[in-house]
Amino acid sequence: MKTYEHGGDIQSFAKSISCKVEEVIDLSSNINFIKPEILCDFNFLEISSYPKYDKLYKAIANNYKIQEEELELYNGGSSAIFTLFRHLNLNHCTIYSPAYLEYKKACNIYKYDYNLINRLEKLDVSIEKNSFVIFVNPSTPDGTLYDLEKLLEYWQKQNATVLIDESFLDFSEGKSAIKYIHKYEKLYILKSMTKFYSSAGIRVGTLISNRLNIQELRKFEPLWKLSHFDSIYLQEALKDEKFIKVAKAINVKNKIYLEKILQESPLVEYIFNSSANFVLAKLKNYTAKKLQEELKNYKIMIRDCSNFDFLDESFVRIAVKSQNDLKAFKEALDVISK
Fold first, then answer.
1. Exposed end of the chain (fewer CB within 10 Å): N or C?
2. Where in this chain does the record put each Aminotransferase class I/classII large domain (predicted)?
C-alpha cells in the first residue's frame, strides 16, 4: 500500500473489477452504515447568500455540552489536524501508534521531528518534554478504548501539548476527555462527527479546547470555510434525537456478529477487542493483499493495514456494516478457506 493510503476508495475498486459502485460491499470504510433522518429538502436551500455558522456552533456545542467559545470548526477532521500542526509550530511530536496516518503526514509536511510509541506493546514510555502528543481514542485501526487519566497527568508534567482524537468515541460508551480542557491548558480534542453521522462527504471537523486556545486558533481562520450544505446537513443530523441510541445499538449487535464470523474463520489467527465500528484481525498463513484479491470475486472491499506502524501484511480491518453485507462476507470467507 501507499504510505498514507486509506480505505473506502469504492470508485477505484469498482473500476478495477468492472462493476457498478452500487454492487460493491465496502467493509474497508469505517463510516457508520446507519444514517440519521434528515428532514430538510436541499432542493429549496437558500444558497445565494454567504453562509453563517451561528446555529451550527450552537448545535455542536449543545451536543458536546460545552460553550460555543470552546470549539472551532474546520473543513473536515484532516483540515483541523493540519491547521493545529501549523498553528502550534512546535519542533517535536509523539504519536501513540498505530494511528490515523494523517498525523505522520502532517509531521512530515510541517517539519516536526517525531517519535512513535507502540501502544500495542506498552503505554508507559517516556516522552520528550514540550512534545506535541497525539493519541487516538478509541484507536485506529484496532478500536481499543483507553483510560487516559494517568497519561494526561504524565503529559502535563512533561509540559506536552496534547491532541486526543475522539473521532470514534460516539460508537462507544467511553467518556470524553473534554472534561479536562479546563484543568490542562494545552489540551485539544478532535471530533470528526461525520464518522458517526455517516456523512464523510460533509466536511465538518471540530477542535475543542479552552477559550483562550480557541480564540488564538480563530484569529487565523477565513470568514467562510464550510458550505451552507455542510452546515445545514449536520444541524439536521443533530436534531435526530433517536439516532444516537439506535445507531449505537445496531452497531454493537452487528459488531458481535462480525466478531463471531472472524473468530470462526480458519483464515483468522486472532482479533482485537474493539470499542469502535470496526474490528482488526490478524490473518493466519494469509496476507491482507491476498485476501483482498480473493474477495474481489465477491465484490467485497476490506482494509489492508500493512501501512500502519507496527503492523505487518497479515493485518486487516473489517468495518461493521449491515447484517446482509456481513453475511455475504461470511459466505465468501467460508468458500475461500476451503
1. C
2. 50-331
Q: What angle do CA 230, 232, 237 make, to 5 degrees?
A: 95
Q: What angle do CA 280, 329, 290 make, to 5 degrees?
A: 65
Q: Could you report how far apart the first and last alpha carbons of the chain are, in Å?
A: 27
Q: Which three cell numbers stand for residue 55?
A: 446555529
92, 131 in Cβ contact below 8 A? yes
CATH of 10-35+243-336, one of 3.90.1150.10, 3.40.630.30, 3.10.180.10, 2.40.40.20: 3.90.1150.10
**Digit-coded pLDDT (tens) for 213-260:** 999 999 988 778 888 888 888 999 999 989 999 999 999 999 999 999
Cβ–Cβ < 8 Å for 321, 254: yes
Residue type at position 166:
E
Residues whose CB falls within 8 Å of the CB of residue 248, separated by 6 or more in sequence, listed in order? 170, 171
Task: Give the Cα separation of 223 and 52 in Å (integer).
Answer: 9
- The ranges of the chain annotated as CATH 3.90.1150.10 are 10-35+243-336
Q: Where, residue-wise, is CATH 3.40.640.10 in the chain?
A: 47-239
DSSP single-letter state for residue 202: S
CB atoms within 10 A of CB 310: 14
47-239 classified as CATH 3.40.640.10: yes
Q: How many residues are present in the chain?
A: 338
